[in-house]
Specification:
Protein name: NAD-dependent succinate-semialdehyde dehydrogenase
GO molecular function, one term: oxidoreductase activity
Bound molecules: nicotinamide-adenine-dinucleotide
Shape: globular
Low-confidence stretches: none
Domain Aldehyde dehydrogenase: 27-476
Helix content: 25-40%
Distance between the termini: 69 Å
CATH architecture of the largest domain: 3-Layer(aba) Sandwich
Number of strands: 24
Family: Belongs to the aldehyde dehydrogenase family.
Mean pLDDT: 97
Enzyme class: oxidoreductase
Largest sheet: 7 strands, mixed
Structural class: alpha/beta
């Protein structure tokens, strides 16, 4: 990386306002476009985790006592710093995670907007006056910050996932210990630096890295931690929720996987569907929990839909995220390459038609060809397991009822999408599709202003919108005579 315009690293942890970890044992961070080492990442020892949790507990009373306006000013300053530093942070994010620079810039913009939204929304955390049933006694429901939070975020959005959790927690008056993914730590370090430079008091945000299982067990068990928030796979989420239950029924927000169905009805505007879904499918090489995944297309439109998606896939230029002209970067790690290849091979063995792509590309880095699989049977693993990769998977449908049945076939329910011109069909979908977010003739289901979260195995609790503050608040009844 001698010609890199911005250096990657050094990577450190932030505990009680001090950057720490220089020289500590840990692991290497790799560039997914080359497989080469980018930097060394220090790991927290159990003592470091205890110090981080204790720092969050010590900082909590003063932070919750500050006015929401005051807290919001710091968040807004941090948002502006992210925007000022966007060139450098985009480079770091794209280098460690693989997404094209343009997508990294959008992620930075949305992260800054999330800080701004939460800064404002923190000023509108109201309680409630309850009409009294008892003469001489006033009843009030008070909303108060839950306390120090432990947050765990994944590698697919190295900046936005931390931003969502940290912004809502801090705006609500909570303090936090954040453990981002060890595979993409650089953007999270920059995020913490922006908040510190914006004037965040010591201990309000602590940043740690380590062996995930050890870090989460230690933090969740710690007396100081009152709430857990996790984004990642269903299996890990279930494990963390069980730990949280064991250590005092601690509150959880779980944003787990999805397997988003896309229902393209007979009366859909096919051109609009293709224009929106093509770029959306291959964004971040498909490694998005709300990525459109199972495309159930009406028989009369199916073949044209497959052709359109195949053209889109063939037109994408693969390359390092930081290279000009890259349309799709590498997958984030070698696990994904192996997993996506296995899913594609299984589908083909079960009778799916491989229209384009289908294999890893090159002998350097973790590239996988944008892939289209048509007429995929429901028994194929890829129809049942989240592919988290650049694969379009199609099947034919004949009616609205069948579309809804197929959409609800899996126990997951994060995002779902539909394309139709019929108001009656939209009403049936709104009622019938089991999902946390439903986009109809639209894909923009993730914005700072709107609630984001899943149902069933996709988890519980909202991030974003007014609803995104709720998980960081507890309700206290004050009955005053
Ligand atoms: P994984 O299950 O090993 O890890 C998922 C995330 O959880 C990673 O960020 C990891 O660091 C973290 N993690 C793992 N064990 C943990 C523990 N005991 N305590 C705390 N954090 C822990 O899987 P992976 O190989 O990284 O990704 C595979 C699958 O995970 C994907 O196919 C996808 O289904 C899912 N995933 C979902 C999201 C999302 O946005 N919902 C993000 C990343 C991965």
């Amino acid at each position: 990386m001698t010609d890199a315009p911005h250096p990657y690293g050094p990577l450190e942890m932030l505990i009680d306002g001090k950057w720490t970890g220089d020289g500590a044992a840990g692991e290497d961070v790799f560039d997914p476009a080359t497989g080469e080492v980018l930097a060394h990442l220090p790991h927290a020892a159990p003592d470091d985790l205890d110090r981080a949790a204790a720092a969050a507990a010590r900082a909590f009373p003063a932070w919750r006592a500050r006015s929401a306006l005051d807290r919001g000013r710091i968040l807004r300053r941090a948002a502006d710093l992210l925007r000022d530093r966007a060139d450098r942070i985009a480079w770091i994010l794209s280098t460690e995670q693989g997404k094209p620079l343009a997508q990294a810039r959008i992620e930075i913009g949305v992260s800054a907007d999330t800080l701004d939204w939460c800064a404002e929304e923190g000023r509108r955390i109201y309680g409630r006056i309850i009409p009294s049933p008892v003469p001489g006694v006033e009843y009030r429901a008070l909303k108060q910050p839950v306390g120090p939070v432990a947050a765990f975020t994944p590698w697919n959005f190295p900046l936005m996932m931390p931003a969502r959790k940290v912004a809502s927690a801090l705006a609500s008056g909570c303090t936090i210990v954040l453990k981002p993914s060890e595979e993409t730590p650089g953007a999270a370090v920059e995020f913490a630096r922006a908040l510190q430079d914006a004037g965040l008091p010591d201990g309000v945000l602590n940043l740690v890295f380590g062996v995930p299982g050890m870090v989460s067990e230690r933090l969740i068990a710690h007396d100081a931690i009152r709430k857990i928030t996790f984004t990642g796979s269903v299996g890990v989420g279930q494990h963390l929720a069980a730990l949280a239950a064991r250590h005092g029924a601690k509150r959880c927000t779980m944003e787990l996987g999805g397997h988003a169905p896309v229902l393209v009805m007979e009366d859909a505007d096919l051109d609009r569907a293709l224009d929106l879904l093509g770029p959306f499918k291959f964004r971040n090489a498909g490694q998005v929990c709300i990525a459109p995944t199972r495309f159930y297309v009406h028989d009369s439109l199916h073949d044209r839909f497959v052709d359109g998606m195949a053209q889109m896939a063939k037109g994408l230029t693969l390359g390092p995220g930081t290279a000009p002209g890259t349309g799709m970067g590498p997958l984030a790690n070698p696990r994904r390459v192996a997993a996506v290849r296995d899913l594609v091979e299984d589908a083909v063995a079960q009778g799916a038609r491989l229209v384009t792509g289908g294999a890893p590309v090159g002998n350097r880095g973790y590239f996988f060809a944008p892939t289209v699989l048509a007429d995929v049977p429901e028994t194929a693993r890829i129809m049942n397991e989240e592919p988290f990769g650049p694969v379009v998977v199609t099947a034919r449908i004949a009616s609205v009822d069948e579309a809804i049945d197929r959409a609800n076939r899996l126990p997951l329910g994060l995002a779902a999408y539909a394309f139709t011109r019929s108001a009656a069909t939209i009403a049936r979908l709104a009622e019938g599709v089991e999902a946390g977010m439903l986009g109809v003739n639209a894909i923009a289901v993730s914005t700072p202003e709107a609630p984001f979260g899943g149902v069933r195995h996709s988890g519980y609790g909202s991030e974003g919108g007014i609803e995104g503050m709720e998980p960081y608040l507890v309700t206290k009844l004050l009955a005053q005579g």
